[in-house]
Amino acid sequence: MALKEHIKYKTPVGRMALTVLLLLCCAVAMNAQVQVEQKIDSVQIFIGQQTGLHLTVNMKRGQKAVLPEFKRAQMITPGVEVVSWKDGDTTNLDNDMIQVSRTYQLTSFDEKVYAIPALNVKVGGRNYSGNQLALKVLTVDVDTLHPNQFFPPKDVQANPFDWNEWSTYFWLSVLLVIICVAIVYLVYRLKQNKPIITHIRIVKHVPAHQRALKEIDQIKAEQLVQSEDQKAYYTKLTETLRKYIQERFGFNAMEMTSSEIIDALQQRGDKKMIDELHEIFFTADLVKFAKYSTLINENDLNLVNAVNFIDQTKQDDKPTEERIVPKLSDDDKKSRNNRIVIKSIISVGVVVAVALLGYIIYNIYLLLL
Fold first, then answer.
1. Mean pLDDT throughout 325-350?
2. Burial of residue 244, with CB atoms counted within 10 A of its CB: 0-12 exposed, 13-18 middle, 19 or more buried
3. What is the 3-state secondary structure (H, E, C) of 215-281?
4. How far is CA 269 from the centre of its chain?
5. Residue 85 near residue 105 (C-beta atoms within 8 A)
6. What does each C-alpha distance from 311 to 150, 240, 316 come to in angstroms?
7. Global pTM value
8. Quick one: pLDDT band at residue 5, thresholds 50, 70, 90?
């Protein structure tokens, strides 16, 4: 009654009591917000087995929790050691709360019932503890009265043969053999079917006047003009002119007589040019058939007239090249197409065979592991 009056009338004692009451309420609220829980996967294990100890903390978002850490093989309690530990994921809860966790792997090598202590967690500078747990460690019964019943460890047992596991790769191997035989046969066929080799010829066409002038230069170089064998000189000179006339004017001058050539040219050139050409052929006929002897000056004049005739009748053609591609027969074309098809099939077969071989070897290796 007195306390109520002090509080009511705001006396110093009342204010102090109110402050203490508020602090107690805040402490209770803070304790209610932070919750620490310990769980263990199995409360009973054999010697040397492991079990997980889970430590979870529920707290307000923004708070920081410091969970206990242990070194490897450090005892959490005498007789129980920590093998390892790792943190779990942070989980969001309702009411602006979060949950953090850590898992400790425990083991023991002594038969006993152990009390796992409550682990200490620090949140916001204050210490909180989980709940205490128990762990029972069992040992394996050993029959010491009958030592002859202890047997050594058994060897690795061979797996039984299962045709279903091997059938696929067996038939793939058969297919691989068939493909290899087909490749060998096709290679043999390819060698028997000789390749069709064609050579493309490049023919250079020299204009008729250039070829004629070159032959006349050769006559000069051989000094046939000054030679005593006038028949050879005029024979070569007239043959050069006949070839030029045949290519230039398009009639068969090589098979015509001198008079026929002159008659054929009457319609194509002026009279002076024809007269000079007629003099050359007339002199050549006398030398070849009548054993007529000419002077050196006369030979030189006929040579000059032949050059003038060529220069006056020549065309402004330039040397050209002709690319001559040989034509294949139908059998040759068929043979070439067959070779192309065989080569394509061999290439595809080799790729398939290599891929199939690698696939079979890899899968058999996995089966043998």
1. 82
2. buried
3. HHHHHHHCCCCCCCCHHHHHHHHHHHHHHHHHHHHCCCHHHCCHHHHHHHHCCCCCHHHHHHHHHHH
4. 73
5. yes
6. 124, 14, 10
7. 0.37
8. very low
